[in-house]
Amino acid sequence: VGNRIIRKRIHVRVEHVQPSRCREEFELRKIRNDKLKAEAKARGEKISTKRQPVGPKPGFMVEGATLETVTPIPYDVVNDLKGGY
């Protein structure tokens, strides 16, 4: 092939082809941001239209937990060798 660029071909029936949805969220966000900007401009404010990362979840207390004391069972060599318990 060397320095030539060979275009890939895909063989798909027309029924299986569907339009890409990768820009849907961007388009909706753009429309929403334009509305927010227009409202803020009417009020004389400046707003940030940047996406913010999701913050940490709020803390909570776990209640109603009961404690159970667990003790080890003594190992019995004689019964273990016989195959019994």
TrEMBL record:
Gene3D superfamilies: 6.10.250.3260. One of its GO terms (molecular function) is structural constituent of ribosome. Residues 39-58 are annotated as: Disordered. Residues 39-48 have a biased composition (Basic and acidic residues). It comes from the Eukaryota. GO terms for biological process: translation. InterPro entries: Ribosomal_eL21 (IPR001147). One of its GO terms (cellular component) is ribosome. PANTHER family: 60S RIBOSOMAL PROTEIN L21. This is 60S ribosomal protein L21.
